[in-house]
Specification:
This protein is α/β, with parallel strands linked by helices. Helix content is about 25%, strand content about 30%. Strand 5, helix 4 and strand 6 form a beta-alpha-beta unit. The chain binds guanosine-5'-monophosphate.
Length: about 190
């Protein structure tokens, strides 16, 4: 893939930066209320959820701890998940007896999260819930209950605010769709 031209490659801005920030503030306020007085650990999944996690934790007014995991799917392509998940980075601390909130960038087929849920449940947290910035229900293969949701989006491959195409575009401050010829060239 050639060096991308961030401005020229974007066809449509689906969710502008100010709407993202307003939603994060709203979610932070709801979570601060729901988890008041609890022992909350936010578990984020690298790399895509990094900006969301960083903004969400600062939108919360209660004490929280954070931990990070990194997973990758075996096989698949740049725009499709295969469903087989490999843990590249595991949790640093025990979550036994803690209230855990998984902070995810996007739920597409749900296969990645389904795997993570089973994995984390095995570590005996007191509770386990999901906060996803984006929900793409059109392609869901497994039924997943999303406790906190930012936006429901149509069946389009999106980039920005953590989400990549070929590891680029993660630093765009908005969620957008690239021009078809950019994906075609990948
Ligand atoms: P799932 O396992 O739910 O199909 O996919 C989860 C992962 O696939 C996400 O965490 C993300 O890394 C990737 N993914 C799914 N849909 C998109 C998309 O529209 N854009 C980008 N950049 N990644 C996506």
């Amino acid at each position: 893939m050639q060096q991308p031209d961030h401005t020229a490659d974007v066809a449509t801005i689906l969710i502008p930066a100010d709407r993202l920030q307003a939603k994060v503030a709203e979610l932070g306020a709801v979570l601060s209320r729901d988890y008041a007085g609890r022992d909350l650990t936010l578990v984020s999944v690298l790399k895509g959820a990094l900006p969301f996690m960083a903004d969400l934790m600062r939108a919360m007014s209660i004490p929280v701890q954070i931990d990070l995991m990194e997973v990758s799917s075996y096989g698949g392509t740049a725009t499709e998940t295969s469903g087989l998940v490999r843990i590249l980075k595991d949790l640093s601390s025990s979550i036994e007896g803690k209230d855990v909130l998984i902070v995810e960038d996007i739920i597409d087929t749900g296969l990645t999260l389904n795997y993570l849920l089973r994995y984390l449940r095995g570590k005996n947290p007191a509770s386990l819930r999901i906060c996803a910035l984006l929900d793409k229900p059109a392609r869901r293969l497994v039924d997943i209950e999303i406790d906190y949701r930012g936006f429901t989006i149509p069946d389009q491959f999106v980039v920005g605010y953590g989400l990549d195409y070929g590891e680029f575009y993660r630093n765009l401050p908005f969620i957008g769709v690239l021009k078809p010829e950019v994906y075609g060239a990948g």
